[in-house]
Amino acid sequence: MFGFFRRKPKLEDELKKNPYQPEKWLKLAEKDERKAPEAIINTLIYSNGELLDTVVKKIKSFAVFREIEPFIPKVEEKLGKEYASFLLGIVEEYKGNLQKARNLYDVARNSQDSTLSFLSNYYIASIYTKEEVYDLAYKALKEIEEKVPENYKLEFMVKKRELEEKLGISGSKLLKSFKEGLKKTRDALGLSAFKGREVDESLFEELEEKLILADVGVNTTLELIDYLRNEAKKKKIKSSDQLLELLKEKLKEMLSKCKGSLNISEKPSVILVLGVNGVGKTTTIGKLAKQLKDKGHSVVLAAGDTFRAAAIEQLEVWAERAGVRIIKGQEGTDPAAVVFDAIQSVKAKGDDVLIVDTAGRLHNKDRLMKEIHKIKKVIGREFPGQPAEILLVLDANTGQNAISQARAFKEITDVTGIALTKLDGTAKGGIVIAICNDLKIPIKFVGIGERIEDLREFDPDEFIEGLFEEEESEDKLAGN
Length: 480
Description:
The chain is α/β, with parallel strands linked by helices. It contains 24 helices and eight strands. It has helices at about 10-15, 20-30, 35-45, 50-60, 65-70, 70-80, 80-95, 100-110, 115-130, 135-145, 155-165, 180, 185-190, 200-215, 220-235, 240-255, 280-295, 310-320, 335-350, 365-380, 400-410, 430-440, 460-470, 475-480; strands at about 270-275, 300, 325, 355, 390-395, 415-420, 445, 455. An eight-stranded mixed beta sheet has the order 3-2-4-1-5-6-7-8, sandwiched between helices. It starts with 10 loop residues before the first helix and ends with a helix.
């Protein structure tokens, strides 16, 4: 009669008696945060791998990446190496070790378990996307297109379309023109809206505002507006169309002073690449290496950014993609030592071009200056007269901040040229004009897209024509 008051068995006690209850292990994970990591792993083990997708989502939602690591050997013992490798891949990806994670997922992708195989390929595609290696990401998705589970179909379709857009294989497959790459800046300037107007003070004021908003820079904008005012008065210009032609020619004249091609006339030629984290430095190095390789040059990369986590792994991905050699050290190694090793390798094999990546610790200018000077000293001692190029990578999206970065690096060392990335993704493309007019540093490359071909040699006339050209109809652009 006292059975009603009998204590209900604890969930842990119940699972000790019968652990083959994966759904109850999930309940324990949700109930007890401290026991969640082991409970999540037991969910996978006692479901015989069937709840893998659920387990992965729990690991991410509970953020217990490092906490599950001690229990992964148990997974290998019970379910096999492929499941263990997949979970280790999740842990390493969380730590930022992208190449290591990709290699671990690669072990799991050949599993006979359809869910494990799909998720491994899917996560490999995700890593390639993070590394901006979009063609390999797309290839990985295409391999599993026919095996997408119902609950991933919408997400898969979105990812695939995003990659197709980045690769330029949705709609027209034609190489992106400069005009297309400058669309956002051209729209921001809206120069076509000034056509057919009378030349008066309101026109000059509106034009001044537009130029400043497009990040042409206050000093350069005022210089341009003063020039236009004087010319309009001197030549008695009444039509805004004539004024815009004057502006176009003046801008071409300004930018003609900043045109410069890559100097790789000597063998070997060394290109030292600078830039803060996040500007697209690694991607620019990779694209440049591939372009030079395709032109018949033998290229070597030196992983001199030994400070930033995953920088070496990201450069390795690009070296693999470009089909060039890479010389690297461990994270934290003296960058000058890595460069020295790369130079010895270039000497031994007779390579044409050595591209050196460097750290971007602009917040610690003194240390960065010492590091770059040390690297330059090593290069100059082994290859007199080198580096041939000191290329500074800037992100066009940062606008006037890009000029501040350029000034800071110019104080540290002699910058011979600029590569301006992500020009297609910003309305601040006027920064090209500001950099040229304020800093007088040659702009050697501009990035107007994600593909390797979208890193272009800078052509001032083409750039200015792209800003002034009127939009064509979509049908005409598509070739219909």
